[in-house]
UniProtKB/TrEMBL annotation:
It comes from Desulforamulus profundi. Residues 219-273 form the DUF2179 domain. It is a multi-pass membrane protein. GO terms for cellular component: plasma membrane. Pfam families: DUF2179, YitT_membrane. This is DUF2179 domain-containing protein. CDD domains: YitT_C (cd16380). Keywords: Cell membrane, Membrane, Transmembrane, Transmembrane helix. Its main location: membrane. InterPro entries: DUF2179, N-reg_PII/ATP_PRibTrfase_C, UPF0750_membrane, YitT. The keyword Transmembrane applies. It is found in: Cell membrane.
Amino acid sequence: MSMRWLKDYLGVTIGVILTAVGLDAFLVPNKIAAGGVSGIATILHYVIHVPVGAAMLVLNVPLFIGATLRLGWHYAVRSLYGTLTLSFFIDFLEPYIPALTDNLLLASLYGGVLSGLGLGLVFRHKGTTGGTDLAAAIVRSFVGINIGQLLFLIDSTVVAAAWITFDSAELALYALITIFVTAWVIDLVQEGFSYAKAFIIITDKADQISQEIIKQLDRGATAWKARGMYTGQEKEVLLSVVGRTEVTRLKEIVRETDPQAFIILGDVHEVLGEGFKQLQGSK
């Protein structure tokens, strides 16, 4: 238990350092206010000349108070470590990290990648950095709308404020690029790269196809009964997960066995079990 606790705190710490580097090296020097509390702090940094980390810390104080009163102390405390360390490292590292580029496209892309990597690690290790996550949770407790929509609304408002403050539509557009890149990388860190494919096969020849999958690919398949609502006919549905290199061969198996089969193919980010990654604790 203690090792797991240590691993989580180490992961959160590495995550906030990466996020701080992304802000110090790319986003803040180029006035890219990519939404959230960091975006507001970037605007304040240029308007009233306060350190970004300190501004983020001050902005988070009312959010912590509101989260504690509205959602309970345990919800706010969960964000405390990530928030404090992120604010600290942004200001601590700032004198030692020069702006690595003044190209706005490069800054928005690399700043988004580093921020996404950092925040993805923080979330993966059960931490948060407060900010708009807390704000969205508080607002949602009153109005009950989707948190994703609230975060988008908050980020859009910050980007609009940066547009007005810096009098630059171009900076606002680059900030939107950073927001999308950050969100994509966060998902990538949490879910991982897609390394397998899931086939859902609707067919009249489930037994034959499953036997060929077992024989030719050494993979398993699961079948269940289904009924087409348009035709009313009974069919079987097969589910089989294969590696990327086996996708073409499985398509050929289905086409050769049942040309009328209906195939749905999707990405799989993690597979636990025989033939793939072993379940934790298994030999």
